[in-house]
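Page 42, continued from yesterday. The earlier attempt failed because a stray header line got pasted into the input along with the sequence. Redoing it now with the clean sequence only.
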Amino acid sequence: MLGAIKDRNAVILEVLAAGHVSHLWALEGPTPEAIRIRESAGEGVEPSVHTWVLLAFALFNGTGSLTVARMFDTLTPHQLAIALSLLIRVAMGTPGLESILESGGEDPESGSTLN
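This time it went through. Structure tokens are written below.
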């Protein structure tokens, strides 16, 4: 799905930027804080932050254990739309991901802004 680790981390940084939590990841991989959030089941952070971290780890190495139900339960409709749109673009390849992020989050289907 995602290529080399450096490219994967760049994509993850862009995904986390949509959730305003990109400070939890680096081009080298997860920060110690991201690891702590995942290992502590999100203790001490908002549920949405924990969800974004789980999404990042799911993309990074498959260890996020993120469910669609959790995304619906913890993300606002706006955040959910962004996350799902980004996941679709990740599945299509990073050029699609880059295009939505560079365009300011416009939904290609409706032309409405997602972020």
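Notes: The longest helix spans residues 77-92.
Reminder to self: strip header lines before submitting.
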